[in-house]
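So, does this match?
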Amino acid sequence: MREAVRHPGWTIAATMLASSLAFIDGSVTNVALPAIGHDLQARGEALPWVINAYLLPLSALLLIGGAAGDHFGRRRVLTWGILLFAAASVACALAADLHVLLAGRVLQGIGAALLMPNSLGILGSSFEGEARGRAVGTWAAAGAIASAIGPPLGGWMVDAIGWRVIFYINIPVAAAAILIARAYVAESASEEGRLDWLGALLATGALGALTWALTLWSAHHQASPASWTGLSAGIALLILFVVTEHRLGERAMMPLSLFGSRPFVGLTLLTFLLYGALGGLIVMLPYLLIVGGGYSPAQAGLALLPFSIVIGTASRLAGRLTERIGPRWPLTIGPIVTAIGFALLLRADPHGSYWTAILPGMAVIALGMAGTVAPLTTAVLSSVDDRHTGTASGFNSAIARTGGLIATALGGAVLSRTGVALVDAFHVAAIVGSALALASGIAAFATLES
């Protein structure tokens, strides 16, 4: 362990609490979607924006959030992110209509883009070797536990009090994270230089246009002139983003030189495909159970509990294993197991027995993801030098959230259905998820070294 880490336990605790804000918020909001739609009179095709208004800035700004930590100090930027996230949570809780809620969700996404990469960046710059693997495994396990607590607790709160209270639960967690970070976490060394604001603006615009176009297409089940316009604008902005990053070289928030590494390309492709499949599932399954099967929000939250328990239990072990045998086999086998779990969800029936129709697929997906989450994070952090751990973790998190962003945008094709059509659309999504997970495992095997 490095000499600079005077309080290793408290350092891990601060990063776990901070990142848990994002994990809790994501899992709780998914369960509350039907209640939010009913209370704010939002149509089914508009509901993906409750998720994507958060995921869009999170995906686009994670890169510059990590770079900001590298420049200004990771503890400082982490604290800024927590404060913004907490204030935005209050705004969401007080929202009188959908537009105000979406604005609050955007601010939450910006706050999460600051705190997420810097929580991992602090771990990457504070620990090394097997200690880093254990720390990241513990961080991943805490995130899974937070995700596990979120749905049943949030579902119960939605039933007993109302959906607004789910945003208030972020406040005590944020307060504890700030107090511990300020008291016990050492500030990381910062870099001089300018941040890539133009790159951040172009990335946000590109993802925003693409998300809007895909959401519009999925809601109406067909392409339209407006969706084609958005898609074209998104692609054009994406090209400008790549050109800008190439021109900036190592000063870019996404240095293109990183893609000269075959393993880095493989990890990026794996992350995008696998988290795209998972992001779609986490949004669609609670909606299927509540709207299609008559589950209460609390019951839908409990239905997701085995998923997070398995990941939380096994992630630390997977992190240790990766330090000994390397990431190739865990990152190959884990996604393949996940693909099998998605295939099992072809049997999903919201009116059938949860134990036979839903649980088997969820358990197998959880087992596969448990073997993937910590090894993937450790592999990414180990692929760069200490000065760029925030940038690397931010990029990987951005790719993961972008996969979920696109999956949620396309998920409008499922959320806008009812009855038998809703179940059929979910089964099609399960097939797509299985194919994406399988492809991610193949990508890891083909690009990573033994």
Summary: The chain has a mean pLDDT of 83. Residues 40 and 96 are 8 Å apart (CA to CA). Residues 196-252 form one domain. The chain has two domains: 8-195+253-447, 196-252.
